[in-house]
Write a structure and sequence with these properties.
mainly alpha; 2 domains; 2 strands
Amino acid sequence: MGVQARSSSPEATLSAGDDVDLNAKFEQEEQRVRGEENHLGGWIGGALGAVVAALIIGFVAAAFHVWIRWLSIAIGFAVAIGVRRLGHGSSKQFGVIGATWSFIGCIVSYHLAWIFVLAREQGMPVMEFIQSVESWSNFIIDVLGPRDFAIYVAAVAAGYKFSYNNLSDQY
């Protein structure tokens, strides 16, 4: 039984079985991709992306004595690459993994940069500065500002959005 669509092109002719075949194909592809997912790989990839990006951005900030806030968004993208490469995820769970590691990476890189800069300003080695900090909770709270969190939201969004492959975007 054929249904003629209202179009002048000959490709517009549809049969009743076409919808079922497309849905079945989508289901098969989704099952295949879900079978390749690796949550542990996603966590490891996110951690590696966060650490590498945090170190690079921390060293850049220390070398140039300036913290460029928007570089935090690069942490989100680095984490997303790690989660996507090692996790092979297609579900939103991988987005949550990416968002979590993006936030952690932002916090670590920001404080690492401050440690490098403050140690250099005080003329002491980094490890000596780290040992001289009396209260880490006060140090962490003192150096964070509200504008930093606005950028972290963008980094977390990048980490979430690009950490998984949404199958419905392909069809």
